[in-house]
């Protein structure tokens, strides 16, 4: 299943050149058309008022994307929440979860424990609970660009410069959740990983997005330090060390590039599908590969580490904590964030 999902992502990202790949892609394109019709139907129900949107008693900021996989939503949610907290605002983050509504950390937990986070499958109901229980000044909706039931005041869309739109097809033939024309609904675009692409690539992305006449804000991910269950290390502590990296995020290339930029010797790198739930078997394989390569350190993301509960005896597991840093357009972001 892991290899099948990785094969699909390669197809959907426009990274195939085999006959079999193009054959499968042609079938997926037909399925994409059906999916697109369902999207139109759903949008029409809300547009015509057959399904009512829920309006909350405080401003709602959505942080989402138009593609599947990671674009840096969680670091952006934390950045926004911290910024609002610094202004004296009470913030509640609503995240998609399964089962009952709960105050808990899920597998993409925010590292700042002062931020209130509610998870649940019904985020419209979750918003009502947040207002009744916590009386927030602002609610941040995590992964909310395609969430129609809850009315938003601001829609921030994350765009990963390393793979902004895949092959520009919608699911399942591409990585787009909806057509690119839907970007018209956005209030602002946050470009991530601007430091990992060339000037010409960045210019091509910004030129395309400029036609939507929205705020364009640029950002990068800045490493903060390494964390294990027992200790924390400075971000330069593993420079020159031989390590094995792994992750289960939407764009593993960005994490791999960051490890190299930090000066570590990458003996190997293992990619898993986004939101992957690690089994003991997976960890044992990683450990054996690391030991065979003479590696003493396994490095992963904070998102992945919280899903690993298995003992590692011969190697140490560290998670690299990453913060989002706005490199251009912070004034634009400040102008759209509620201040009253």
Give an account of the 3D structure.
The structure is a single chain. With 340 residues, this protein is of the alpha/beta class. The protein folds into two domains: 60-221 and 325-336, Rossmann fold (3-Layer(aba) Sandwich), CATH 3.40.50.300; 222-322, Rossmann fold (3-Layer(aba) Sandwich). It is built from nine helices and 13 strands. The protein has helices at 2-12, 19-47, 73-86, 123-134, 199-210, 252-261, 280-292, 302-305, 330-336; strands at 60-65, 91-96, 102-103, 116-120, 138-142, 154-160, 188-192, 215-227, 232-234, 242-247, 265-271, 297-301, 316-328. Strands 1, 2, 3, 4, 5, 6, 7, 8, 9, 10, 11, 12 and 13 form a 13-stranded mixed sheet that branches. It is globular, with a radius of gyration of 20 Å.
Q: What does this entry show, briefly?
A:
With 340 residues, the protein is of the alpha/beta class. Helices cover 33% and strands 24% of the residues. It is built from nine helices and 13 strands.
């Amino acid at each position: 299943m892991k290899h099948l999902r990785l094969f699909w992502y390669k197809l959907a990202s426009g990274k195939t050149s085999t006959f079999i790949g193009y054959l499968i892609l042609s079938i997926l394109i037909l399925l994409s058309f059906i999916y697109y019709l369902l999207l139109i139907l759903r949008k029409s129900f809300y547009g015509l008022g057959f399904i009512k949107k829920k309006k909350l008693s405080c401003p709602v900021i959505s942080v989402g994307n138009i593609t599947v996989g990671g674009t840096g939503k969680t670091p952006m949610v934390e950045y926004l929440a911290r910024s609002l907290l610094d202004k004296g605002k009470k913030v509640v983050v609503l995240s998609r979860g399964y089962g009952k509504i709960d105050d808990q950390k899920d597998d993409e937990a925010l590292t700042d424990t002062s931020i209130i986070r509610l998870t649940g499958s019904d985020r419209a109901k979750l918003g009502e609970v947040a207002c009744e229980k916590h009386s927030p000044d602002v609610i941040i909706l995590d992964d909310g660009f395609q969430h129609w039931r809850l009315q938003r005041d601001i829609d921030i869309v994350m765009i990963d410069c390393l793979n902004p739109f895949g092959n520009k097809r919608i699911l399942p033939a591409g990585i787009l959740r909806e057509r690119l024309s839907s970007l018209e609904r956005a209030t602002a675009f946050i470009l991530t990983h601007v430091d990992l692409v060339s000037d010409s690539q960045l210019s091509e992305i910004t030129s395309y997005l400029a036609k939507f006449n929205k705020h364009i804000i640029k950002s990068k991910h800045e490493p903060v330090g390494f964390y294990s269950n027992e200790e924390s290390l400075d971000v330069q502590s593993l420079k020159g060390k031989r390590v094995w990296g792994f992750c289960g995020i939407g764009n593993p290339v960005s994490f791999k590039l960051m490890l190299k930029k930090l000066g570590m010797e990458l003996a190997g790198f293992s990619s898993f599908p986004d939101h992957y739930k690690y089994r003991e078997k997976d960890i044992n394989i990683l450990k054996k590969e690391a030991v065979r390569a003479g590696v003493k350190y396994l490095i992963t993301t904070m998102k992945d580490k919280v899903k690993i509960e298995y003992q590692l005896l011969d190697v140490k597991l560290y998670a690299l904590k990453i913060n989002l840093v706005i490199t251009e357009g912070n004034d634009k972001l400040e102008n759209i964030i509620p201040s009253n």
